[in-house]
Design a protein that fits this description.
Elements: H1 3-7, H2 9-18, E1 25-26, E2 45-46, E3 55-61, E4 70-79, E5 82-90, E6 96-104, E7 108-120, E8 123-133, E9 135-138, E10 148-156, E11 164-182, E12 185-201, E13 205-217, E14 221-230, E15 233-244, H3 245-252
Length: 258
C-alpha cells in the first residue's frame, strides 16, 4: 500500500471491511415464503436478532491467519421517524474502531453518520466522517437490483504529522444467488461485486482502487468478504461465530460506545 495509505493504516485496515460498513437489515423474519427471498432485504442483517442489547458477530481471517479478528456489535432501534441500525466495530482487545448509524427505508439502507476512533496517550479520540452519498444497500429484487454507490470523507488526524483528507467511494453490484456453508449447514446467499476508490490528499491527491467480493446469507447478513488492496495485501474474512453482547463483554471486555 502506498506510503500515504500506510499513514492511516490504524483506521483504513478496518475501514476496508467496515464500510461493508454499514449494515442494513432484513425487514422480514425467518420462515417466510420463497418469494420474499427474491429481495435483497432478506439478506441483510435480521433486525429481530438485534433488538434490545443486540448481537455480536465475530469474523476471522480466511487466508492471512495472522490478521486479527474483526468484531461487530449490531443493535436495532425503532424510532418515530424510521428504524435505525447501530453498528460498532471492535478490536479483539475490546477497543472501538468505528460506529455507524443507518436508517432502514423501504427501498434501501441510508447511512446517517460514521465515527472513527483511535487512542492518543490512552485517551480515546474521535474522527467524524462526512457522508457525501448515503445509500449503502438496495432492497430491490435480486434480479433487478441497481448498482449502489456511496461515499465518505474525513480528515485523519491519527498520525503524528498533519491531518490527511481521505475520501472513500464504494460501489456494490449484485451478481446473483448461491448457497453458502455456515454453522454446519448450507444457507441461501447472494454474491456482490465491489469496487472501492480511496483518495488521500496532503499536497496533492493520491488515488488507490481495489475490487472485491461480498457474500450475504439470508437472515444472517455478511458472512464473507474479500478485498484485494494490492498483490501484497489481501483482506479475506469469514463469519466465525455469533454471540450475545454479554458474552462479548466477558470474552473481550468491550466498553459500550453511546
Amino acid at each position: 500500500i502506498m506510503a500515504c495509505m500506510m499513514r492511516t493504516s490504524k483506521i483504513l485496515t478496518h475501514i476496508a471491511m467496515a464500510i461493508v460498513l454499514i449494515s442494513a437489515a432484513s425487514c422480514g423474519s425467518d420462515g417466510e415464503s420463497d418469494e420474499t427471498a427474491l429481495y435483497l432485504n432478506k439478506y441483510y442483517y435480521n433486525i429481530h436478532r438485534f433488538a434490545g442489547p443486540g448481537e455480536v458477530y465475530v469474523y476471522k481471517a480466511a487466508s492471512e491467519l495472522a490478521l486479527p479478528e474483526e468484531i461487530w456489535h449490531y443493535r436495532f432501534d425503532p424510532g418515530y421517524r424510521g428504524n435505525y441500525l447501530n453498528a460498532v466495530m471492535y478490536t479483539p482487545a475490546g477497543d472501538p474502531v468505528q460506529k455507524s448509524i443507518e436508517r432502514l427505508n423501504r427501498d434501501n439502507a441510508e447511512l446517517l453518520s460514521l465515527e472513527l476512533f483511535y487512542f492518543e496517550e490512552d485517551s480515546l479520540q474521535t474522527i467524524e466522517a462526512k457522508v457525501n452519498r448515503p445509500v449503502t444497500f438496495s432492497f430491490a429484487a435480486i434480479d433487478d437490483a441497481p448498482e449502489v454507490n456511496y461515499e465518505l470523507e474525513y480528515y485523519d488526524s491519527s498520525s503524528d504529522t498533519d491531518s490527511v483528507r481521505v475520501i472513500l467511494n464504494k460501489t456494490r453490484r449484485v451478481i446473483g444467488r448461491e448457497m453458502f456453508y455456515f454453522a454446519g449447514q448450507e444457507v441461501p446467499a447472494v454474491r456482490i461485486e465491489t469496487r472501492e476508490i480511496l483518495e488521500t490528499e496532503t499536497e496533492g491527491f493520491t488515488e488507490t482502487e481495489w475490487t472485491g467480493t461480498e457474500i450475504f446469507a439470508q437472515d444472517i447478513g455478511l458472512v464473507y468478504y474479500r478485498k484485494k488492496i494490492n498483490e501484497q495485501f489481501i483482506l479475506e474474512y469469514t463469519l466465525h461465530r455469533r454471540m450475545t453482547y454479554d458474552e462479548f463483554q466477558t470474552l473481550y471486555k468491550g466498553d459500550e460506545i453511546d
